[in-house]
Specification:
The structure is a single chain. It contains 6 helices and no strands. By secondary structure, the protein is mainly alpha-helical.
């Protein structure tokens, strides 16, 4: 049981490193997700990719996992408006899934957020009390 939490931390961290890297490999995939009211779409895709890679790497290092976890939570909150934008404009995002899938995706974003929360140090296990 004691190995599960660190392994899952690495899985989450690596997921964010890969997701962030994809911002550089396929920026055209992310550009349409940017709400119209935001400026500098290309720069924001680039910066969010950098942020995701950094957060993922910080999560993978035990000494910086708390910072990485908080950074991951901040990123997930920051990109949530793009997820709402996608759900409200399904005709623009038919390649990304059905309108229903775009809405189902919204509450599913809580899973990685809560997953990251487990590494913030605010969650204490029963054995540490």
């Amino acid at each position: 049981m004691s190995l599960i939490k660190p392994v899952l931390r690495y899985v989450l961290g690596l997921f964010f490193v890969v997701a962030g890297t994809m911002h550089f490999v396929m920026p055209g995939f992310y550009l349409p997700m940017m709400p119209d009211y935001l400026p500098w779409h290309g720069a924001l895709v680039f910066l969010s990719g950098v942020a995701e890679v950094l957060a993922g790497l910080l999560l993978c290092v035990p000494k910086t996992q708390r910072i990485g976890a908080w950074a991951t939570i901040a990123i997930l909150i920051a990109v949530y408006p793009a997820n709402i934008y996608m759900a409200l404009n399904p005709e623009t995002f038919s390649d990304y899934g059905s309108p229903t899938a775009l809405y189902v995706r919204l509450p599913l974003q809580l899973i990685p957020l809560l997953w990251a929360w487990c590494y913030t140090g605010t969650v204490r296990s029963q054995t540490s009390r």
